[in-house]
Amino acid sequence: MLRSAASKAMWIGRMTSAVVGLAVILALVLGVASMAMSATRQPFILGKQNTADQVTKLIRHGAGAALSLEVHDGQPPMKVNSSGKVANLNSDLLDGKSDTDFYAAGSKVDDSLHADSADSATNATNAQNADNATTADNADLLDNKDSSDFQPSYERTVVVSPVGTDTENGTALLAALSSITDASATNAYLLSIEPGTYDLGTGSLQMKEYVDIQGSGELNTLITTTVTPEECIQFATLYGADNAELRFLTVRAGACSTAIYNNSASPRLTHVTASASGAGNYYGVYKRESSSPTMTNVTATGSDYGVTSYNASSPTIKQSTLSGSTYSLEHEDGTAKVADTQLVGPVANVNGTLHCFGNYDENLAAVTCP
Asked: What is the pTM of this model?
């Protein structure tokens, strides 16, 4: 009887110990889980949408990547829904092309004067393929280079940059214009000249139809020559062409007689300075043989003639400055129109028609054209 009672008491004791032990274990596990959930707000569940109201950081101590994403071939390992640029994300490719496939900013002019478009991607911040694996819609860098390190690619714009001495720059300018061989009414070009002095030496620049020439400002882009007076036979620094515009630069005659010469050509001149000074007959702008250019905001200065118009030429001159000791404006034959222009020097009209409106001299006194 006593033995049976003792056995039952021992059994009850063991059961009680087991229950108490299980309770302690559950309390520890549940307590830790509660602490973890309290610290992280909620667990990260794979295959489900997870939300958070604070930034989540993944920190790896030691060498190696902090995150590795693996997917099937051809599948993007990551997707984003914002067009914002990701700072310090270094892309390796832009539309499948490396940085060497682009025309770098400041590159010298060579036979490859304009780069082809890479899927019309002109901004290095819009990377489609980063490091051959990760798609980054707005990467901050391409092979450790910012977008400012690349020259935008153009279809029909030829950019001319300074490449060395003034004479070397002039050679590069002539080569750039010479490279344009397919300009037409439906395929017009822009020759864009960066700041610098472009010395054509004993050569001259002949404009082409449907090719506009644009400098970087009259104070920043200078086209000139170093021709000696003995070499000047009806020589000009620049010759105009029909269906083309010259703008935002200065043309200097050097030792020759004429800065800009239009012979049976009617270019548009806008914000251009044409300067010719020396001993002899020097012309800022010379026109003949039915040349009818439109000149707006042009400063034409010659030691003798600012603008001369001969042989049935009919220029239109607006808001300009013409200066010459012999004549600021000399017109013969044809019909010339001059409005809101400063005329510094005498005005001559020989057997032609000259319409003037609102013109004035260096003292802002009204000038009446003959």
From this structure: 0.62
